[in-house]
Amino acid sequence: MRKQIAAANWKMNLTLQQGEQLLDDIISQPHSLKENQQVVFAIPAPYLAMAQQKLRNKEQVFVAAQNCHSKKSGAYTGEISVDMLSSLGVHYVVLGHSERREYFNESNAFLAEKVNICLENNITPIFCCGEPLAVREAGTQNEYVALQLKESLYHLTADQLRKVVIAYEPIWAIGTGKTASSAQAQEMHAFIRGNIAAAYNAETANAISILYGGSVKAANAVELFSQPDVDGGLVGGASLVADEFVAIINALQ
Ligand code: PGA
What we know:
Number of strands: 8
Strand content: 15-25%
Strand order of the largest sheet: 1-2-3-4-5-6-7-8
CATH topology of the domain at 63-235: TIM Barrel
Order of helices and strands: EHEHEHEHHEHHHEHHEHEH
Bound molecules: 2-phosphoglycolic acid
CATH class of the domain at 63-235: Alpha Beta
CATH architecture of the domain at 63-235: Alpha-Beta Barrel
Shape: globular
C-alpha cells in the first residue's frame, strides 16, 4: 500500500519558541494514523535538533529539512550537508521547492545531484515539481512537469525512484489561496504516475507517493486527498495553525 503523508512546510517562519509551541499543540491533539500514514514536519534548519528530540518517540511522525547541499562537505559557507542531517537523525528533505527554484536558481540538473546524494545517504527526498501560471494558461503543464521529472529523477534506477516522494505543487496555487480543483490535482497526479509508468513500469509508478501542495487547508483536504492518485499534501500556510494542520492530518484516508 502506498504511503500517505501530511507534510508541513513551515518555510522561513516562526521563532524557536513558537515552533516548539506549535509542535506541542499539534502532537498533543488526538490523531490516529493508519499503518501506511505519516506526518512530516519540514522545518527551518536551526530547529531540526529541537524537533527531532521532541518527536523521537512518536511513531510515524518525522522531521524533514527544507533543503540540503549536493556535496558531502567542504567550503560551502551557510549550506547543510546530508551527513549533518543524518547525524541529527533526519531522514527526509524537501528538494526543488518552487521557491528554491525561483529565488535560488536551482535547476533540474542541480536538483538531480541533490537527489543522488540524498539517496546515497538514506535520506528520502520529497521532490517538488509544478508549473507556473503562464504554463498552465498555455496548457503545456504536462510537458513542463514531465521535463522536471526526466531531468531530475529519471536517471535513477527503479529501486531508487521508489524511495522518492513526489510533491506536485502548481506555483499559481502556492500561498495564493487559489487551490487547484481536486479534478485538476487528480489529472496531474495521474499524468505523473503514467509518465513514471512509461519511463519505468506500472509497478514502480504505483509504489510512489505523490503529494499535492498549494493552498491545502482543512476545508479542502478531504476532497483533495480522496482523489485516487493524491497521496497526501505538502502544506505551507495552513501548517502554521495547529487546528488546521491536525484536521489536514485527519483528512488522510
Ligand atoms: P501553501 O504552500 O500551502 O501556503 O500554498 C505550499 C508549499 O509551498 O509547499
